[in-house]
DNA sequence: ACGCGTATTCCACTGAGTGGAAGAATACTA
DNA sequence: TAGTATTCTTCCACTCAGTGGAATACGCGT
């Protein structure tokens, strides 16, 4: 995604020069975006110095300076009192208008609230984006288990409840592509073998719920179900994440399963999905 | 905010020319931003044709074409099957990382949920941005009153509950500036006189809650309270919006008032605010 | 006072961005 | 089926906006 360092675009006195001068063939727009990407980058820093931005974006300091000023004047970046820069409210304002996120969220939220209220556990709403589960919404009470999901964050498909559901109903070529890569094993319990995963996906398609336990974060389990749109296509997944119950043999409270199913159905219906098939 | 049409920057054959050729002195960055602004613009359209974007941004078609392509390749815009463009997920992803919004939301959400649960009414969280109330969060059940607030939306300070609270605790020069402008009267009940508003603001500061009835949307009333950060500064406001009760003389259910107060205090405390005064 | 990291300003050079115009799709209409 | 809008895409010669190295200014610790 981010990546290449890149540098100046001048060819200048390379007349008889030895080393080919590194050229930055990125367009102005690409450079501007690189500056934003500096904030999304792996190390999730909420504020950066000018130099740090220049560094991460692979741009000369003076160019960065000029471009950052442009972002600030538009409101996409904000300068805080300590001189560091952070993402600006304007960006948030524009970002939340994004139709996919906004529509789904608006429709789903009441159902997610119901689910939260009846379970008192983390409630997640995620969609498939590229090869990740992208978290659109997350409701948590005051005392829920610590989890790593964040709104706007991404987690792998094979080790999360929502991820596995999204993968189960994804196009076959995506499943094949995903399973052909080597998958990270976050905990001893994480299932990474393609064969086993395929069985799991089939199980999820058969039962309409995914059950995960101790595969991403120690001490937490999750239970997820698919959300379908008018056309029957799975467009999102809901889940609840609970503290793992050492008693329960495999899978959490059955009442939870009903609640998650009900929430998923509710949202699907609100999206125009008909037919309850078993 | 958006505004000026602007056009080409060439001066060319104006040798003896009469009309001065319209020049667009916007930078590349400013033009790129203008394209995004086209989507935020007054007429809240969720998807636009290329021509419409060019139009709203005041850019030549070919330039728009090239720039839109840049946005799409980064993910800030997305092209849908029908050829129209909409804001892209990438923008959402970056936007939700914006610290102010993210931190406040994360901390406040559990309290907002409690408030929603106990009141079953619209719950709003807003901050002061420029001269508007900017809505950061909104929780609504399945059957709540129709209101016009949206997450990411803006509403005036003098005609909404959260707005009035934010104005009440704003710096004096902002209050003066705001009240010196002519204020829109949305409904017969909207208070627009500077004098009356000042009295109201004083009342809000004295009681710690704002009560509004039939001033923005017919049939709805609202009740708002301030949220303070560690330093005691009011940084946001919570409110609930209820269907106006024709019986109640002025102001909604007293239990609601307690709940809103409690939510505001809860969030303030979570933000590090100490001292309960009164 | 001195050094070091960071931020800002300056300016000569040049190729990236520009936009008018022509061509290609696509959608209505008759 | 041809005819006419309307919207989108590609092309290319021109030139000025953007570029980045260097010099300067700032801030902080020692």
- Work out the strand percent of chain A: 15-25%
Task: Extract low-pLDDT stretches of chain A.
Answer: 1-20
Helix content of chain A: 25-40%
Largest interface: A-B, 46 and 46 residues
Number of helices of chain A: 9
Q: If you compute it from the alpha carbons, what radius of gyration of chain A comes out, rounded to the nearest whole angstrom?
A: 22 Å
Average pLDDT value of chain A?
Answer: 88
Topology order of chain A in helix (H) and strand (E) letters: HHHEEHHEEEHHHEEEH
N- and C-termini, Cα separation of chain A = 42 Å
Structure summarized in a few sentences:
With 278 residues, chain A is of the alpha+beta class. Helix content of chain A is 40%, strand content 17%. The longest helix of chain A is centred in the middle third of the chain and has 21 residues, at 99-119.
Write a structural description.
Two copies of one chain form a homodimer. Chain A is of the alpha+beta class and 278 residues long. In chain A, 40% of the residues lie in helices and 17% in strands. A six-stranded antiparallel beta sheet of chain A has the order 5-4-3-8-7-6, sandwiched between helices. Chain A has a two-stranded antiparallel sheet with strand order 1-2. In chain A, a hairpin with a 5-residue loop joins strand 7 and strand 8. In chain A, helix 6 packs across helix 8. Chain A is globular, with a radius of gyration of 22 Å. The two termini of chain A are 42 Å apart. In chain A, 40% of the residues are buried. The N terminus of chain A is likely disordered. At the A-B interface, helix 1, helix 3, helix 4 and helix 5 of A face helix 1, helix 3, helix 4 and helix 5 of B. The structure holds a DNA duplex (30 and 30 nucleotides).
């Amino acid at each position: 995604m981010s990546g290449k360092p890149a540098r100046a675009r001048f060819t200048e006195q390379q007349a008889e020069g030895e080393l080919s001068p590194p050229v930055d063939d990125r367009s102005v727009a690409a450079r501007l975006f690189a500056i934003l990407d500096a904030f999304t980058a792996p190390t999730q820093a909420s504020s950066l110095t000018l130099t740090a931005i220049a560094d991460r974006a692979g741009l000369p300091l003076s160019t960065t300076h000029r471009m950052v000023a442009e972002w600030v004047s538009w409101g996409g970046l904000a300068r805080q009192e300590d001189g560091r820069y952070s993402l600006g409210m304007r960006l948030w304002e524009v970002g939340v208008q994004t139709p996919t996120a906004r529509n789904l969220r608006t429709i789903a939220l009441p159902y997610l609230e119901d689910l939260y209220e009846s379970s008192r556990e983390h409630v997640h709403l995620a969609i498939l984006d590229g090869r990740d589960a992208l978290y659109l919404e997350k409701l948590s009470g005051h005392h829920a288990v610590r989890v790593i999901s964040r709104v706007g964050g991404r987690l792998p498909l094979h080790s999360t409840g929502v991820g596995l559901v999204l993968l189960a109903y994804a196009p076959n070529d995506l499943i094949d592509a995903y399973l052909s890569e080597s998958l990270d094993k976050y905990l001893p319990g994480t299932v990474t073998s393609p064969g086993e995963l395929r069985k799991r996906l089939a199980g999820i398609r058969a039962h309409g719920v995914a059950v995960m336990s101790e595969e991403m974060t120690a001490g937490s389990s999750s239970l997820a179900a698919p959300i379908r749109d008018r056309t029957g296509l799975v467009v999102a997944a809901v889940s609840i994440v609970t503290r793992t119950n050492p008693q329960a043999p495999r899978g959490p409270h059955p009442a939870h399963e009903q609640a998650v199913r009900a929430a998923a159905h509710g949202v699907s219906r609100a999206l125009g999905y008909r037919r309850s098939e078993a």
